[in-house]
Amino acid sequence: MALIVVPTAAQAENETIKGTLEKIDGDTREPVAGVTITVELDGDIIGTASSDDSGDWEIPVPGAGTYLVRLEVDTLPDGVALTDPERSELPSVSVRNNQNKTARFNLGPGLESGVGTWTRVSSLFVIGLKFGAIIALSSVGLSLIFGVTGLVNFAHGDLVTLGAVLAFLFNASPIGPGWHVLIAAIPAILLVAAFGGLQEIGMWRPLRRRGTGLVSLIVVSIGLSFVIRYVVLVAFSGLPRPYNDYAIQNDIQLIGITTVPKNLVIIAFTVVVLGLVGLFLIKTKLGTAMRAVADNADLAESSGIDVSRVILVTWIGGAGLAGLGGVMFGISEQVQWDMGAKLLLLIFAAVILGGLGTAFGAMLGGFVVGVAVEMSTLVIPVEFKQAIALGILVVMLLVRPQGLLGSRERIG
Amino acid sequence: MDWSKILIDAGRAAIGVPAAAYAISAMGLNLQFGYTGLLNFGHVGSMLVGAYGLAITVDRGGPFWLGIIVGIIFALILGLLLGIPTLRLRADYLAIVTIAAGEILRLTVRSSWAAPVTKGIFGIQRFADDFFDVNPIPAGLYGIGRFRFDERTVWVMLLGWGLVAVISLFMWKLIRSPWGRAIRAIREDEDAALSLGKNVFGYKLQSLMVGGAIGALAGMFLAIDQQNVTPDAYIPLITFYAFTIVILGGPGTLLGPITGSMIFWFLFELLDGVMTTLIVDMELPVLSAFDATDVGPIRFALFGLGLMWLMVFRPQGIFGSREEMLIDAQ
Fold first, then answer.
1. Which domains does chain A have, with CATH numbers?
2. ipTM value for the complex
3. pTM for this one?
4. Which of A3, A383, A412 sits opposite B113 (nearest CB)?
5. Please, where are the H alpha helices in A45-116?
6. Hey, are the CB atoms on A216 and B104 less than 8 Å from each other?
7. What is the rounded CA–CA span in Å between residue A120 and residue B271?
8. Min Cα–Cα distance to chain B from A155, Å
9. B114 at interface of A, judged by CB pairs closer than 8 A
10. Nearest CA in chain A to B306
């Protein structure tokens, strides 16, 4: 009963986080208005506020606890910048009962002439591409597994979490060896890939053999997603934590775009990996067989393709890619027990946009969804950026249910 | 270790308020999933719009009865909006869109944009005073020993199980009507129903909407009991409680959701009691890696395992016979 009986917040709006934004330049102080502040708890947005004409802002929070407070740098007016660019997020602002906690951001004159429209648009575009890269990596497996088996795996998001958490085990966990995150990623990805293969051999293959139908298999995958998610919660705890490496980086300027270097590395690396996956699918015998099974399993079987083996390879590869996506996601943000479950909606949007069952569609869809979600914050409140994904889903299903690159007969 | 205490608490849970609420919710889902074969993974969204429809109406000064009508209308509209783009496609598309829509609804009501109406993450409280003001049951405790409920709980339980009875009667009539035969035919063989000139899309849409309205009643009932709606109570897990209950009791059976809900809450409470005893009270050395905060997550992991096991080995419910079970089109 614990879940639906949410504490009634003691009927109180007693706890708040507040502050005053002032630009301090030598001896002069002037209030900064119209800057957006966001408060989050465990990755969920609790509230946002804009500073008023005297620079004041206040956000009520549901109770005592430790919150993340973020100043949305994009909303700073021209000529104002954080004196320490790394302090746009205060990760642990703890609020006691009935406390009006003050959170402080130090503002000064910007080194550059401020954040113009171009800078904002271009940096959001890069963030969108990076997010898209993570979605694309995670989507390819879901789409290919659907292609070869017909199963929409609702536990796929939890493979993403597993990749991130296992890399954390080898990287930052006190019981782990403390490897660099790029080294730690290797065993993490291999373990997730092996888990994918074991799932296929131990569960999905026997279930298909005994003729369990599609609907039952989907419900089984939902059950599995709860098992993985809550085992991770017990093992990892509910606290979001960063890797030891690349957690904080300074912005760099590159051809007029301001962003953190890790975003560019994630995008570049993903493009290479997805390119290799594409080459594998087109050039190798196994890749061709995979596409053949996705197209028509019976026909593939009768032309001598070992369908069981192809499905097993798809599971191993797809799970490994999801694990890689998870490590990237963890480097990009933080590691959290339900990060993959939160990504699942975006993965679905990407896969349906590109065409369920196609690998290239999932890649394309991933980037489009990532960019669309991030860029949407230019015009709609940041809390609704996930809703863009649902919008894409519904519009595609109405207009072109087979997706951009899918074939018509798959949707029947 | 006090086994009798754990058993009595589990027994209380089996006839308590949540059991009644989830029996109602599962009856709505049973119409969609059990009788029509629709894979609705966003059932929690219907519960949300029902509860918020009631809470917002009363909060804005409207009468209680109007709030209930508003909640039901919200759920009917939601079913319509979700069904139109998805019901002509395969089952998994409905599942994807509904699970997404349920989450988007939760994010919407908790957003600061909607906060002037929904009160954001704080939610709306004390909107069911009208219902508790007319409680005819004299103050006191009813029952034997530990197995006791106060007058407020008894009043809510009467409403809940009363609703269960009324909706069961409605379902009984509905399923035996020509409409009910049509939706069962669609579940068994969509193409056959289509070739007999049935408007399959229309029937599916109606089933989704009516099931959603029943889900809304469950959401309202839970909200009335707690006098509180907050967005984060409506997480996807709630949908899968209802799924598990439907499968436990046997999909496509009249009384399945009721027995399913009672068994589900009995087991859930029993598990909680046993694990708390083993981990916290007895401090068993084998379980020393766990502490009290792990009881909840372990229970949910076991819940997932239970759902998988049921779906694979007893998809017809724990009492049903395998031959009657045909929820798997395609």
1. 23-115 (2.60.40.10), 120-411 (1.10.3470)
2. 0.89
3. 0.83
4. A383
5. none
6. no
7. 52
8. 11
9. no
10. A223
